[in-house]
Design goal:
The complex is a heterodimer. By secondary structure, chain A is of the alpha/beta class. Chain A contains nine helices and nine strands. In chain B, the strands form four sheets. A nine-stranded mixed beta sheet of chain B has the order 4-8-9-15-14-13-10-12-11. The chains are: A alpha/beta, B alpha+beta.
Chain lengths: 217, 408
């Protein structure tokens, strides 16, 4: 049988997902001790490549990999059309609208919003019937309202600590973010048995993790 | 041949040609050396293979009594209004009246426009070929100009018309020496007909349908929980996986309580599978009963072909009796199939080019040169002024040189 190629988002997603993959019976020894390697073929059934989040869909859409594991923030920002088949119980966080405490969301003028996610921001404000000026920045988005670049920001928060430390507060909660298993539409047909097996294993693993969490609580 | 551009701070560019010599020239901001994102030039073998493939397909269509229909590249954007805009973003421009025009993103709807406005008598069989334009994400490596070749059979209601499309699709692949085709059958009405049977409020039905189509298993499983214990429970839990081997999908259908309205759909699919297996025993026939209709105007069977190696579909088609309803009130039976010519080109190996023969001659030997050209295979006129230049060219291009001036 032909190997399935999986593009895994490197960094935090990789750290959170590798234990799940291992629990689902995939050999991730190579990733555990990766050094500078980017391709891992320790498991005879899978070839895992590590790429940056926004590149996962580029590889997937091109058919270069069959499966991608990536945050729903990126899928949503890039307007994904492949099959987002499974939510993994890791990397949960949320988009919020945040600013300094003197920000008035009701003020009658065209607000300036800084974000790394212009499409999500645009869709949110369109949804509430408001037109805003969006400024795209690449990192440390919290700075924007503090320095006077923007009235508010749209960004992802997990614990809210970064916001607090920068004296910012949440004004609206937007969509939730989690990690998803995405499958190329044609690949699902070309590699149906293998992908079904992988998805079923991950589903079981994921349920076990959820159950464990709920019994702890 | 590869040109490497190295933009330097000095606003000068070095062009490297075959790695041997350099020319320096001023960089201007003009875009006269760039292609718009998503486009490409085709030359040499690639362009020739494409032409050969198109001609083979056109010949097949014509031999079966299809007539050619050519529509313009530019159309009013309203023509394509039935298309799912998410899949087909088009290039837009305005005409001199301020009307919105598009570069056609599809070749089937223009056929419908022709049929509804010209009063052509039915039934009719058309074939067409040409480029469609679909704007893909910038810098994603996708091409925006795609070549298609296909047929439309208009005015025949029965399954025979569907089968002629399948016959043509599979014969086409055979002629391209593609012998590992998988053909996937589906039906535009299956999902809706089945969902109608469920005792659920409409919004829930719609959510189930969306989750099913997106294969969003996490959401689908959640929506299904209240139905687990019903007669449909077992079938529904397997529904997102209801594709693949024809016989296995049909077996899975047996777990479904009897739904009379589904029977004609199932019968058509069964008969079609028998038809394909009878004529093309090597073709792998699969079935997908979990996907949406390819476009809103599809009304019956749909099908697409792929191989294990291909990154996209080789052909796709189906029955769309609602196709013309965007243009007129009367329904007209229509079924068609289109090949993705670029996908066929990609699959065709480039055969190593044969060494050429150069025919060198004096200007007053033109007749003789023409005769040589006709008799020597793979030859071309050598248009250099001197024999020395001809020899150099032959050596440089690894060609044989025939010198007609020698015998003078």
């Amino acid at each position: 049988m032909q190997r399935i190629k999986i593009a895994l988002t490197k960094g935090r997603t990789e750290e959170q997902v590798v234990p799940l993959l291992e629990q689902a019976g995939i050999n991730c020894e190579g990733i555990r001790h990766k050094g500078r390697r980017l391709i891992f073929d320790e498991d005879p059934r899978y070839e895992i490549i590590l790429v940056k989040g926004p590149d996962v869909l580029t590889y997937l859409n091109n058919g270069s990999v069959q499966i991608g594991i990536v945050g729903s923030d990126i899928l949503s920002e890039q307007e994904n059309f492949q099959y987002a088949m499974l939510d993994l119980d890791v990397g949960k966080c949320r988009f919020v609208l945040a600013s300094t405490k003197d920000f008035n969301p009701q003020v009658h003028r065209r607000k300036i919003i800084a974000t790394k996610y212009p499409n999500i921001t645009k869709r949110y404000f369109q949804g509430i019937g408001e037109d805003v000026e969006i400024i795209k920045i690449e990192g440390s988005v919290e700075l924007a309202p503090l320095i006077g670049l923007a009235d508010a920001i749209v960004d992802i928060v997990e614990t809210g600590n970064t916001l607090k430390e920068n004296n910012l507060q949440i004004f609206a909660k937007l969509q939730q973010v989690n990690t998803k298993v995405v499958v190329n539409r044609l690949a699902l047909r070309q590699y149906q048995p293998q992908i079904k097996e992988l998805i079923a294993n991950l589903q079981t693993t994921n349920q076990q993790v959820v159950q464990k969490k709920s019994t702890k609580e | 041949m590869r040109w490497n551009h190295d933009f330097k701070a000095s606003s000068k560019t070095e062009y490297q040609f075959s790695g041997t010599f350099f020319i320096e020239m001023e960089v201007t901001m003009m875009k006269n050396k760039n292609l718009p994102s998503g486009t490409r030039d085709e030359f040499g073998s690639e362009a020739e293979i494409k032409e050969t493939i198109e001609n083979k397909l056109f010949k097949t269509f014509r031999q079966r009594g299809f007539r050619k229909l050519t529509t313009p590249v530019l159309e009013y954007s309203d023509v394509f209004q039935p298309l799912n805009a998410e899949n087909y973003r088009s290039y837009q421009l305005l005409d001199d009246q301020g009307e919105s025009l598009v570069l056609r993103p599809d070749l089937t709807l223009p056929v419908a426009r022709v049929m509804s406005t010209t009063g052509i008598e039915l039934p009719v069989k058309w074939y067409y070929g040409g480029d469609v334009f679909r704007v893909k994400k910038q810098l994603s490596g996708g091409y925006n100009q795609l070549t298609q070749a296909g047929i439309e059979i208009v005015g025949y209601k029965g399954i025979k018309a569907d089968w002629e499309c399948l016959e043509i699709a599979l014969t086409g692949c055979q002629k391209m020496a593609i012998d590992d085709v998988t053909i996937e059958l589906s039906h535009a009405k299956f999902v809706d007909t089945l969902i109608d049977q469920l005792a659920l409020p409409k919004p829930t039905k719609d959510s189930i349908k969306t989750a099913l189509f997106e294969k969003n298993l996490s959401k689908y499983d959640q929506l299904l929980r209240p139905l687990e214990k019903t007669a449909f429970g077992h079938f529904l839990s397997e529904w997102p996986w209801l594709f693949g081997s024809f016989d296995e999908v049909m077996t899975a259908l047996e777990t479904l309580p009897e739904v009379e309205v589904l029977q004609p759909i199932i019968n058509d699919l069964q008969a079609t599978k028998q038809f394909i297996k009878g004529l093309f025993p090597k073709v792998n026939v699969t079935l997908d009963l979990s996907i949406p209709s390819p476009q809103t105007y599809y009304t019956g069977m749909a099908f697409r072909g792929f191989t294990e190696k291909s990154a996209g579909y080789l052909f796709s088609g189906g029955r769309y009796d609602d196709l013309l309803t965007n243009f007129q009130n009367v329904k007209t039976a229509a079924v068609g199939v289109a090949f993705d010519v670029d996908a066929l080109v990609e699959r065709t190996p480039v055969s190593p080019s044969q060494p050429k023969t150069l025919v060198f001659f004096d200007t007053d030997q033109w007749d003789e040169a023409e005769k040589a050209l006709k008799t020597i295979p793979n030859s071309t006129l050598c248009l250099t002024s001197s024999l020395d230049a001809a020899k150099k060219l032959a050596a440089g291009t690894n060609s044989r040189l025939i010198d007609l001036t020698e015998s003078r």
